[in-house]
Amino acid sequence: MTNHAELLGIEPDADLATIKAAYRAKLKEFPAHSHPAEFKAVRVAYDALRKTAGPGGEEECLIPKPLEVTVDPKLVRALRQSVLGDVEKSLEDVIKLSF
């Protein structure tokens, strides 16, 4: 089995930013058109390391984060008054049309 970190010249526990930087450097060293086998090996190593990277890794982005929301009480009151005002007008119109 190939040591992916060694191929990219980084530590096995490198973070995603380090992995990406090493990958870009290796792409310059081994362009696809002139070094297809090496390019493929670098790409395989990058994909494998990216999937298992520490903080900021690909798997971490799949974990849902809790939402933090703050609500402006003034805005809530204004919206409530606007909605209630529309409802009251609609009811008055219905009553007028009914009789």
SSE diagram, text form:
Elements lengths: L3 H5 L7 H14 L6 H16 L21 H26 L1
Helix pairs in contact: 2-3
The H-level CATH homologous superfamily of the largest domain, spelled out, is DnaJ domain
CATH topology of the largest domain: Helix Hairpins
CATH architecture annotation of the largest domain: Orthogonal Bundle
| Strand fraction | under 5%
Spans of 5+ residues with little confidence (pLDDT < 50)? none
Summary of the model, kept short:
The protein is mainly α. It has helices spanning 4-8, 16-29, 36-51, 73-98. It folds into two domains: 1-65, Helix Hairpins; 69-99.
Structural descriptors:
99 residues, mainly alpha, 2 domains, 62% helix
Q: If you had to describe this structure to a student in words, what would you say it looks like?
A:
This protein is an all-alpha fold and 99 residues long. It has two domains: 1-65, Orthogonal Bundle (Helix Hairpins), CATH 1.10.287; 69-99. The chain is 62% helix and 0% strand. The chain is built from four helices and no strands. Helix 2 (16-29) packs antiparallel against helix 3 (36-51). It is rod-shaped and about 85 Å long.
